[in-house]
Amino acid sequence: MPPLPRPARVMNIIQAVNDALRVEMRRDRDVVVLGEDVGKFGGVFRATQGLQEEFGANRVIDTPLSENGIVGTAVGMALYGLKPVPEIQFADFIFPAMDQIVNEVAKYRYRSGGQYACGMVIRAPYGGGIRGGHYHSQSPEAYFVHTAGLKVVVPATPEDAKGLLASAIRDPDPVLFFEPKRVYRAAKGDVPEGEYAIPIGKAKVTRAGHQVTLIAWGAMWHEADRAAREAEKEALDVEVLDLRSLQPLDLDAIVTSVNKTGRAVIVHEAPRTCGFGAELTALIQERCFLSLEAPIARVTGFDTPFPYTLENEYLPRAPRILKALREVTRY
Amino acid sequence: MPPLPRPARVMNIIQAVNDALRVEMRRDRDVVVLGEDVGKFGGVFRATQGLQEEFGANRVIDTPLSENGIVGTAVGMALYGLKPVPEIQFADFIFPAMDQIVNEVAKYRYRSGGQYACGMVIRAPYGGGIRGGHYHSQSPEAYFVHTAGLKVVVPATPEDAKGLLASAIRDPDPVLFFEPKRVYRAAKGDVPEGEYAIPIGKAKVTRAGHQVTLIAWGAMWHEADRAAREAEKEALDVEVLDLRSLQPLDLDAIVTSVNKTGRAVIVHEAPRTCGFGAELTALIQERCFLSLEAPIARVTGFDTPFPYTLENEYLPRAPRILKALREVTRY
Amino acid sequence: MRRERDVSPVNRRRGGDGAQADQARGFDAESAFPLRRVMRDDGSADPADVKLSDPELVALYELMVLNRMLDERMIAMQRQGRIGFYIGSIGEEATILGSARAMEPQDWLFPSYREHGAVLMRGMPLETFVCNLLGNAGDAVLGHQMPCHEAWRPANFASVSSPIATQIPHAVGAAWAARIKGDDMVSLAWFGEGATSAADFHAGLNFAGVHKVPVVFLCRNNGWAISVPRDVQTGSETIAQKAIAYGIAGERVDGNDLLAVLDATRRARARAAAGEGPTLVECVTYRLEGHSTSDDPRAYRPAEVVEPWRRKDPIARMRAFLEKRGLLRDADDTRIRDAAKHRILDAIHAAEREPPKPEIGTMFEGVYAEPLWQQREQLARLRDELGQPELPDDDEDTDTALP
Amino acid sequence: MRRERDVSPVNRRRGGDGAQADQARGFDAESAFPLRRVMRDDGSADPADVKLSDPELVALYELMVLNRMLDERMIAMQRQGRIGFYIGSIGEEATILGSARAMEPQDWLFPSYREHGAVLMRGMPLETFVCNLLGNAGDAVLGHQMPCHEAWRPANFASVSSPIATQIPHAVGAAWAARIKGDDMVSLAWFGEGATSAADFHAGLNFAGVHKVPVVFLCRNNGWAISVPRDVQTGSETIAQKAIAYGIAGERVDGNDLLAVLDATRRARARAAAGEGPTLVECVTYRLEGHSTSDDPRAYRPAEVVEPWRRKDPIARMRAFLEKRGLLRDADDTRIRDAAKHRILDAIHAAEREPPKPEIGTMFEGVYAEPLWQQREQLARLRDELGQPELPDDDEDTDTALP
Ligand SMILES: Cc1ncc(C[n+]2csc(CCOP(=O)(O)OP(=O)(O)O)c2C)c(N)n1
Ligand SMILES: Cc1ncc(C[n+]2csc(CCOP(=O)(O)OP(=O)(O)O)c2C)c(N)n1
Ligand SMILES: [Mg+2]
Ligand SMILES: [Mg+2]
Question: How far is C219 from chain D (nearest CA, A)?
């Protein structure tokens, strides 16, 4: 990767999210943040820390405990011309807001024939790995990818967290922004200072290879990367894609890679059945049918709620990914 | 099909649903029905007509306008030992109950280590074709198939509506029972009288063929059937599967058929991206990779909300299915 | 301002018991939220209570008549199969128009699905409204929604949604946004008494109560939620008293008294604008007809219970009021009705001249600001498919009408 | 039964204004829902108000002590890394144990996540509870849930869920089911004041109000929802007054007064059992510690605001009460604390002897009554995979603690 064109600072993902919010709020007075505990406390993960001090309680709002209220209120704000960034404390708690998201946020522009727009960024920490059991570990991205009208973005690194969140805030459409809390603090890296945006909808080839394409996003990208590094020791040459955005989807990048490798393994934490891996599989076999030399494999969470004690067994970690890589290449 | 073993009566789907509810309520005093307008009125589609007269307002309950209240109350009833059959007036209005369904109904047995069971049947008319626009036409089955802990059943015919609903009511697990309202009255057929149950989890080969497997469920099975009949005129020999149950899924039936035909077309009304067709495609290419002679095709609703005026253009009707059948067989 | 006891059967006390007395000592719904009226049943009113000019009063009456005649005509058109569906406001015109009239032009209005009179009052062309009913090429929402699901940005009239109560937090958010931006704007949300059971009612009023958001919550308590009567909807004696749960102001008015509704909404707007927070205004009115054209109320509601309410018709009351003030004579009324009829017929004719279907590409418009590759691909393929000879239309397969 | 003004800072009136006076004439929260107490601050009480026998009173005190010491020990264990998480009830013992004590054995209890004292009172072995904290092979919920998310069927104690307020309609449904079956059963739902903002609170109380379901809604108003103070949660002066929105009974009691809580809950249970419908009981108490072991309240709550509440400690009050009645001397208290300590230590030791992880197959148990092919296949493959040499554990990758 070429050197970054501007001063950068080492940040973790929480700091990068915080920085993106701060920079975008300075840039655009219409950006407001709302949610449970986001104000004075700065969020239970501290992602909004210091924002209320800087921007006031008018723009960084502590709400009552009601996710439908948070998103429903954000709709009204968006219609009137603000750019709300509601936080759902954990992605697991997004479901009380499901009606507002599926039936209102996603459809408002469409149903008004384009008279109104409903741009907002719904941020939520998602995924397992912090010993949170099934109410602090869910990965609900597929529900939202299935809902036309929404964009779904999932960064894996601090730089992407900042750049993609900034773009999401500037985007005219509603964006679900899922933050991989498992690596909230563990993933560290250089992040450009000041205004910085990365276009939504471009996957990143984080490792070039020619034998098999390994597709992941969010926290699982780290496992995928780890598995690819292990695979190298076995002389297995893996190309790794970090999708970064599930909707819009960078299908070209996927098709290009799979047409080259002829094999694909997809990793996600969410339960397998009807997860986003299913859609990717369907698209790949539609577009790369004649290139495919093995069935596309999915390494995913199981079709169970997310367990507490056995979470390391549940998560599709590197060893399971590695096994799938071997199977797919030996097919 | 062999002649039915018992006296049968011609019914449409609404009558079959009504009959199943009545028979099961007679059979088991613990079965109760609750929902908006289900009591005195008998439901806006009249599916619960006459039940309050027969079983009283104690067992056929008109509730306030709150889907989370309906499902949440049903959870308590189920825990205590009743078998509630909540009605959601339209599947489009299930989202206010999403948290109760995803986080409570689906997880209650699991999270209590099996100490409690939460069996219930959530009935909802679903799908387009009645000029209902995007709030009276949605097909949300994929959201629920993605949620471990739930079963999802979708009948296409009156006989199945009765037999499967009876089984759903007797099932120990929570079942989402989506009724194809487009053919609520149009689909007519012989339905056995009295107690009658069809096991959940068995697909039905409604037409044998050897060139291509056509998979559908609910209202779209009727379009699939129509397309298959049209295809016959073109000497295209189509095997049609009515899935009837999406979870549990009769994967054996699918694999057997596709291994024979080498080709598959899947039809559903829901938007394509992350619809259940994606999962079916993923499973088929996993299990039938070496038999496949063409990419699996999906003929589905578009990635938009369900439109009002252009609903006939939106729905994956027979002509679109036929085109896909031709393409897949000529691949 | 008179206060009378509400004797509506649907708002009757649901049985007294010891617990109730114990419950809220000192709280009595009737005295806390008396039913406010301006016009007596016979249309007489204390002149001091009338705060509109004579031409304004007549103009409101004209709108009431237009609204009623539009509903009647559209119900007939639906029966003739010329439109697919209709949902109107027969009996609730005073509630809808009185409250709409109290708001300022810069205010935002969040409708449920019966407030067509309000959007017309604020300038939506009647022809455009009829195009929405037809879902044709002239429809401002591109045929995307069912009839009666209009949106009209020029009047700050939000988009009608079928899911009940969702507009309530939207109204809160918009008003909050205006306050953040420093704009003098109050928003108003309309909803039925059935909507008060929904999650979004609770969230909206609670958020607004905590943050003193400048919003007016206007409940059309029309006695019914489809087949469910008011007393099966909630155990509270009045809807207004639900304000207490949120620490906000509440009022209860005769919803068939346009002047009382106007006054109450003006008071509520003034409170909101003054930073005193939201008000829940309960307008006690009645749904005289079926829920919508898909409904047949005979299945759950005997005609007798409706009868007393027919005698309280808000348009008759307004007419009597104007007559008593010498503002309306029989001839005027005939003229007003004729004018309304012609406006409606003209609008229908103009609307029916538009192509019956929007262009196929509109189906993919507005899902996102710019279509993604999925929408582009799917549209391209659909255009291709439609170029092919179609199988005969199979509409005969389906006979289920929308309820 | 004394009534005193609530002077808690979090329940203070949020500014008076004209609108408020206009709002609910005749309604005054303080007089409608006076704060009921039995014990004075110094522990003295009118003997006529004490409705338990001496041994019962002492037993309740013993439980309070056990509950407190358990919480303290478990918070320490979490700091030592021996359990992953803990959420307790320090300061709220009177509310939880007083209300639990008012219910009958056949009643069903629907906890939020602080009512561990209640399930222990009803017979869950302490060792089994500790196994839940460890998520080990002895955990009655198979390690499926986080610590403090117990369920205990033998005591009709429902399963703790993290999502706020979901248990409220469950309590309604269970009580309704009992009535349908003709059983004499009243259910009770516990929840915090933050939960009153949630959709399921609204639905549960409304359904119960319409159908007079025999249920007790017990709100632990502990002043905080994580970092959000009571007056940012809702604009109403009291939680009890929310009962008015549903036409149900409401009561407000000093939640640090075990006898007052017990009395109020008994009255509520009696009302419910008599067919008079549900009651919303607000117990005014205080969360003396962080929200959970993941929380650090210093980030949002100065120590000073907690101080006055430390002086109202419910255990100290109960102790003073017992001392005044001659039921407790210093030596007794020492004995009680020693006994509690040993019970806790024994339970920990016993629990820690269980295998630290449930068998791998348990991960797929209870998703359905019988596993589907997906669970069977996935388990088989996992067993196969685990047979393979594992890569080194990568837990060092992740350092995010649960808030
Ligand atoms: C969330 C949701 N649930 C159910 C429905 C079906 N439905 C449409 S209108 C209606 C009754 C609404 O009653 P009310 O709020 O009193 O309004 P009214 O029709 O009387 O004006 C119902 C149940 C819906 N539209 N949305
Ligand atoms: C639906 C939902 N949203 C958010 C959360 C995160 N959360 C956990 S506890 C809590 C505060 C609850 O406050 P309260 O109801 O007063 O109960 P307390 O903790 O004070 O006993 C929040 C916001 C959650 N668990 N569920
Ligand atoms: Mg109504
Ligand atoms: Mg609290």
Answer: 14
Q: Measure CB to CB from residue D363 to each of A182, A314, A323 and give the nearest one.
A: A314
How many other CB atoms sit within 10 Å of the CB of residue A277? 28
Beta bridge partners of D281: D218, D251
Reported as a pLDDT band with limits 50, 70 and 90, residue D402 is low
pLDDT tens for D218-253 read 999 999 999 999 999 999 999 999 999 999 999 999
pTM: 0.96
Chunked into runs of 10 residues, chain A (331 residues) has average pLDDT values of: 75 98 98 98 97 98 98 98 98 98 98 98 98 97 98 98 98 98 97 97 98 98 98 97 98 98 98 98 98 98 98 96 97 91
What number is the average pLDDT over the span B16-40?
Answer: 98
Which positions 375-394 of D are in contact with B (Cβ < 8 Å)? Answer: none
Indicate the SS3 state at residue C39.
Answer: strand
Q: What is the pLDDT of residues D298-310, one digit of tens each?
A: 999 999 999 999 9
Respond yes or no: is residue B136 known to be catalytic.
yes
Q: From CA C270, how far away is CA C291, in angstroms rounded?
A: 33
Strands (E), C95-171: 108-110
**Residue to substitute in B45, B65, B68 for testing ligand 1 pocket (most ligand atoms within 8 angstroms of CB):** B65
The preferred substitution site among D92, D164, D168, D289 for testing ligand 2, maximizing ligand atoms within 8 Å of CB, is D164
> Is the pLDDT score of C272 beyond 70?
yes
CB-closest option in A274, A279, A281 to B285? A281
Give the residue ranges of DSSP H helices in C80-137.
93-101, 116-121, 126-134
Q: Which residues of C touch A102 (CB under 8 A)?
A: none
Q: pLDDT band at residue D168, thresholds of 50, 70 and 90?
A: very high
- Dihedral-angle region of residue C111 (phi above 0 means left; psi in -120 to 50 means alpha; beta otherwise): beta
Residue carrying the six token digits 């990068």: A16
- Of all residues in chain C, the percent with pLDDT exceeding 90 is 88
In this structure, the number of other CB atoms found within 10 A of the CB of residue B186 comes to: 18
Tokens read off for A195: 């205004």
ipTM confidence? 0.96
Chain C residues 40-79 with a CB less than 8 Å from chain A: none
Dihedral class, residue C26 (left if φ above 0, else alpha if ψ from -120 to 50, else beta): left
Reading the block at residue A181, the tokens are 């809390």
Cis bond before residue B248 (omega within 30° of 0): yes
DSSP label of A84: E
DSSP 8-state code for residue D11: G
- Among candidate residues A115, A141, A120, the one with its CA nearest the CA of residue A71: A120
Query: What does the pLDDT read at residue C388?
Result: 53
Q: Say yes or no for a CB contact (<8 Å) between A270 and B146.
A: yes
Q: Is D246 on the interface with C (CB under 8 A)?
A: yes
Give the number of A-C residue pairs with CB atoms closer than 8 Å.
Answer: 153
Check D145 against A308: CB less than 8 A apart. yes
Sign of CA dihedral D13, D17, D19, D22: positive
Q: Which of B136, B210, B222, B268 is catalytic?
A: B136
Q: How far is B240 from B209, CA to CA, in rounded Å? A: 8
Whether D14 shows a pLDDT value over 60: the answer reads: no
pLDDT at C85 over 70: yes
Q: What is the distance in A from the centroid of ligand 1 to the CA of B156?
A: 28
Burial A14-29 (b: 16+ CB within 10 A, else e): bbbbbbbbbbbbeeee
